[in-house]
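Q: What changes when uridine-diphosphate-N-acetylglucosamine is included in the input?
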Amino acid sequence: MIKVVTVIGARPQFIKAAPVSKALKASGRIRERIIHTGQHFDSNMSSIFFEQMDIPRPDFSLDIHSLPHGAMTGRMLEATEKILSEERPDWVLVYGDTNSTLAGALAASKLMIPVAHVEAGLRSFNMDMPEEINRCLTDRISRLLFCPTPVAVNNLKNEGFIGNGTRIILCGDVMYDASIMFRGRAKKPDSVPLPEKYVLATVHRAENTDDTTRLKNIVEGLNLVSEKLPLVFPVHPRTRKLLNKPGIPPLSEKVILTSPVGYLEMLYLLDNCMMLLTDSGGMQKEACFFEKACITLRNETEWTELLDAGYNKLAGSDPALIVSSFEHFLKHPPRFGKNLYGNGRAADEIVKALLI
Ligand code: UD1
Ligand code: UDP
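A: The predicted holo structure follows.
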């Protein structure tokens, strides 16, 4: 029996951890202990995913959130170090690119506990993003690098990761595993009146929400799209706080706002929407899993294979480009069919590698 400590804290990490936790347990050879940093804490940003996706209850809850990056990461680092020095696991498992990811990886590496990073090798090549800093640093101190795509493997190769004692494994995307595992349980949200045809939108990225001009432009873009088709917009708490800022125009009444929804509700919304407009990392891929065109409200993406396949268009925060991309995809829906994210067994590959 080996011991793995998983460090998670933000919404997308709960979703990524769900299939992996199940596979760890199913192996019968790994004992998992879970640290929840507390980064996301509202019930519809945290506990709902544990309930809906049968993720084991965290063994440790740090309750650290709503702080500037340094303070948040620092407090998580200190608290995680304490737990890891007691637990002394064989591996620390971290996901993605949040402050919780970096704190978990740093705490482990300073105690010489090997780190396994799920979603390694992703790059936006934009160091102004907190996520880019987190993922580059986490990769650098990880022993096992689980890449979802060949592009991610290449990024690591280009950065000289080969031959420095790390193992790079192309395992596919755990979010694809999750979507297959749970799509049969997709649930119509009851918090929102759902039109028959609608466009789905989410916005939360710091570079969009914290920049008044970009947020203003995105709101204008969403309003313009909603003139053509009603738009359903589950609002991240970060964005909710900033939409009322001076300088941000009101959202049109054709934009249907709702609180963040659970994963099963989001699967339903994705499955039934006409198109997705988002700055989310995970949802760009989920649009592809559900064969929906995606307009990405960013200037670049880590998931470049979606652009190459013609499934996704970058529109930045330009209202005119948002609408013209929307019109383009309405007239010319992409032809899906390329398998970009593995075979839905990424979690099994992760377990196999942890056991070697
Ligand atoms: C974080 C990640 C981002 C990821 C996103 C997923 C970092 C640097 N950023 O961004 O990469 O894409 O999660 O959603 O780690 N808040 C609440 N309730 C909650 C959660 C957050 O009110 O349940 C508020 C916080 O108080 C804070 C704001 O939302 O004011 C932002 O939260 P934070 O965790 O700092 O960053 P996210 O924008 O969620
Ligand atoms: N998600 C959800 N409810 C919502 C919005 C998103 O369940 O209201 C899910 C979404 O389906 C995806 C994950 O949360 O699996 C993406 O998280 P987010 O966009 O917050 O973070 P990112 O992927 O950008 O880091």
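Observations recorded in class: The chain has two domains: 2-173+342-355, 186-331.
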